[in-house]
Specification:
Elements (H helix, E strand, L loop, with lengths): L1 H24 L6 H13 L3 H13 L10 H10 L3 H14 L2 H11 L5 H18 L4 H11 L2
Length: 150
């Protein structure tokens, strides 16, 4: 009798394991529109930790998101925040958004950057963007970068 109980318990455990792993193996559908809206809301808040976390998510999932409404808020962090790590994070976030609008803010605010490492990285980001998206404007970019780095 105990052997049959053990066998039945083993069958039940195997069935449960099968169903648990089967439900976990199915891909989860992500609502990218809702995620994008929530990230924009987080960036518009005045909570630095929430903004930092939102920028990290934008960098990670940039190909699937539409956060164009938050570009100005990220640019303000890049321009005015006292923390150099947060300014660098904002710069990388703007580059990952990868639009003319976001890179325009980098070009506009780069000349005010005091940290030479961030300024150099910003020049690289802008140069890479223009080389891949607008190769015909590289001459204008060279003038802009010379003005920003006297």
């Amino acid at each position: 009798m105990s052997a049959s109980k053990s066998f039945i318990c083993a069958i039940i455990i195997l069935v449960m394991v099968f169903f648990v792993t089967d439900t976990q193996a199915k891909p989860h559908k992500v609502n990218w529109d809702a995620f994008s809206i929530n990230l924009v809301i987080a960036l518009k808040s005045n909570h630095p930790g929430l903004q930092e976390s939102a920028m990290q998510r934008i960098i990670r999932y940039s190909d699937s998101l539409n956060v164009d409404d938050a570009v100005y808020d990220i640019a303000l962090i890049f321009r005015f925040d006292d923390n150099p790590q947060l300014r660098r994070l904002a710069m990388v976030t703007l580059s990952k958004i990868n639009t003319d609008h976001s890179l325009g803010y980098l070009c506009q605010f780069m000349k005010y950057e005091d940290n030479p490492a961030i300024k150099k990285q910003c020049c690289r980001v802008i140069t890479n963007y223009y080389a891949s998206q607008k190769p015909d404007k590289m001459d204008e970019l060279a003038v802009l970068l010379r003005e920003a780095n006297p």
